[in-house]
Request: fold
Amino acid sequence: MSTWMRERLRAVPMLVWMVLIGLALRVAVIPFDTIENLMDAEHIHAWEQGNVARALVDGHGFGSPFVSTQTSAIMPPVYPLIVAAIFEVFGVHTAHAIFAVHVFDCLINALACIPIFLVARRSFGERVGLWAAWTWVFFPYGIYFAAAWAWSTHLLMTALLWLLYLAQKIEVSPRLGLWAGFGLLAGIAGLVEPSVLVVIPFLILLAAWRLARVGKRWLLPGVAASLTLAATIAPWLIRDAMLFHRLIPMRDSMGLELWMGNNGYSVRFTSDDLHPLHNAQELADYNTMGELVYMDHKAAQAHAYIAAHRAWYAEMCLRRAVYLWTGYWSFGSEYLQMEPMDPFNVPFQTCLTLLALAGLWVAWKREPWEAIRYAGVMFLFPIVYYFSHPEPYHMRTLDPLIVILGCYAIVSWREHRAERRRTAAD
Reply:
C-alpha cells in the first residue's frame, strides 16, 4: 500500500470507519437469513409493516397490517411510510425492495455507533465511548437483528440514543430551542413506536429537576418540550379520532397484545397461533367485527382471563420480566423445538445484563446522575411488556445502553487493576 493511501486512510475519522465496518458486517449477513425470510410465501403475508406500506402505495392510506382492506390504527406511521417509499422505487414486495428495506435497517443500526460514542463519552469519558462504539460494530444482536428483522426497532433504538444525547444537554441548559428539539425528536420517536413515550416524562422531569437544583429556569423549557411533543403527535391522533370517532392513544392494538399473552397459554411467551395473521377464525372475526370492536373484544377476553386467574397472571408477569432480561423462558422440549437457539442465547444475554448492572452500580458510586438516567430508561421502557407479552426484539432498543454500561464496568475494572498494580509497584 502506498504512503499516500495510508495517509488517506488515517485521515478518515474513526466514527466513519465504525459505521462502514458495522454496515458491511450487517449487510453481509442478510443473504443468510432463513428465519424471517420475507420472500417466503409463508412469511410475506405476515409482514405487518409491509402490508401497511402496500396500502399506502395503492392509495388506500394507512391500511390494516393484516390481510384486510380496513383502515387501521394499529401501526404508527413513520416506518410504514419509509417502507412505502422503498416500495415506490423498487416495487411492492419485490426481492429488490425487501433487500433495500433490510439494507436501510442495517444502515440505521450501524449509524447508532455515533450516538453511542457521544452519549458514552459524555457519561463516562472518551475511553468508554470508544469501547462501546467498537463493541456495537461487532455486537451479535446488532448484526443479526438488523439483517433479519425488518421492523421499526432499529429506527426507534437510534432515536432513543439521540434523545439521551439531547437529555444530557437539556439537563445543563435551559435554552428553549434545545428543549423544543428534544420534544420534536420525542414526538417523532413516538410515531415510530409509542412504547418509547413512557420514558419521555422521566427524562424531562429529571432535566427540569437538575436545572432547578442549580437555580436555572426549568418550567418554561419543560412546557416548550411538552408542547412540541404534543404538536408533533397531534396530526396522527387527530387522524385516528376523525376516522374512528374515538380518541386512540397512538395505536389501538393493546387489546390484542394483552390477549396474546394472557389466555392460558404458557409453553412459549406468546402464541402466534392466536394472531389474525396465523389464525383464520381470528382474521374472520377481525374483518367481520371491524378493527375497534375486535380490539375491544380481545381486551375484554384478556381482562376476564386475568381476573379469573390472578395467581397465574402474577407468575407470568414475573416470567416475562425474567425472559426479557435473561432470554430464559423454558428448557422444555416443546419450547426448544420453537426456540432452538435459547440454550446458547440465555447465557449470553444473562451475562450482558449482569455486566450492565455492574456498570450501573459503578456509575451510582461515581456518577449518580448518570446512573439515575440510565436506570430510569432501562427499567421503565420494558414495563408494558411484563403485563402484556414479550418478544425477543423488544429489548433490542435497550441494547446500546446495556453495551455502554457493560463497557463502563469492564473499563473501570481494568483501571482498578492497573491502579492496584501501580500501588503495589510503589
